[in-house]
Amino acid sequence: MATRSAFHEQLDNLQHDLLKMGALVSEAIEKAVESLATVNVDLARQVIASDDTADQMLIDIETRCLQLMALQQPLASDLRTIGTALKIVTDLERMADHATDIAKVTVRLSGQKLIKELVDIPQMARRVVTMTKEALEAYVARDVERSKKMIAMDDEIDRIYSMVFDELMGIMQNRPETVRQATYLLMVAMYLERVGDHATNLGEWTIYMVTGELKDMNQ
Predict the structure, then answer these.
(1) How many CA atoms lie within 13 A of 8 on its CB side?
(2) Residue 219 pLDDT exceeds 60
(3) Is residue 84, in this structure, part of any structural domain at all?
(4) CA–CA separation, 48 vs 105, rounded Å?
(5) Using CA atoms, how far apart are residues 152 and 138, in angstroms rounded to an integer?
(6) What domain range is 192 assigned to?
(7) Whole-prediction pTM
(8) What are the tens digits of pLDDT across the range 62-80?
């Protein structure tokens, strides 16, 4: 009994650290887009530097997951919980990478005036951060229905991405001198769309953890 109690305490600690990593990633996304909207290179460099922390958290959580599987005798449901943690931490690390990608765009645009005020891109960022928070809260609560509702939010991310794509393509056609910067902004929108996909993955992994069924909910 004592061994099982210690095992579940370690699972709880893993969950706590995943939430910490999720908060770090959400903050990085918010700061990265803020740095872009204001062309704040110092803020962008802070985001880039924080990626090392996300990378280390990935290594630490992966190591502990593998130790739990190797040194304990997890039941089938426990194995799904550990496996879900491994998948979630990987998606979170990739989301952090995309925040870094956005911050690097800010650095490339240093000293330039934006070709337009950013409206839709910050909106995308707010929505993917909301999705990430909802996904992790659903994971903690083992809430399948909440996960499904969060996954459905990705449709709006895709819709905004299409709007951004069409608008920037129009700007490039009418103002050829904007092509380089507009291409960078398109890349940022693409990074945020991918963050939304990773948030969707978090929800799918939570559903798998609870039900044992893994389905692509965005088909």
Answers:
(1) 6
(2) no
(3) yes
(4) 11
(5) 14
(6) 2-211
(7) 0.93
(8) 999 988 888 767 677 788 8
Is residue 95 assigned to a domain? Answer: yes
Tell me what pLDDT residue 217 has. 64
Residue 155 lies in a domain: yes
CATH of the domain at 111: 1.20.58.220
Place of tokens 């911050």: 103
Long-range interactions of 118-123: CB distance < 8 A, separation 24+: 118/33, 118/36, 118/37, 118/185, 120/160, 120/163, 120/164, 120/167, 120/189, 121/33, 121/36, 121/37, 121/164, 121/185, 121/188, 121/189, 121/192, 122/33, 122/34, 122/37, 123/160
Number of compact structural domains in the chain: 1
Within a domain: 216: no
Structure confidence by residue, pLDDT tens digits, 93-127: 999 999 999 999 999 999 999 999 999 999 999 99
In degrees, rounded to 5, the angle at the alpha carbon of residue 24 between the alpha carbons of residues 84 and 5 is 45
Residue 106 · residue 36 · CB < 8 Å:
yes
> For residue range 10-22, what is the model confidence (pLDDT) as tens digits?
888 999 999 999 9
User: How would you label 127-136 residue by residue, b for 16+ Cβ within 10 Å and e otherwise?
Assistant: bbbebbbbbb
How many other C-beta atoms lie within 10 A of the C-beta of residue 103?
A: 30
Q: Which one, of 163, 100, 92, lies nearest residue 129 by Cα?
A: 92
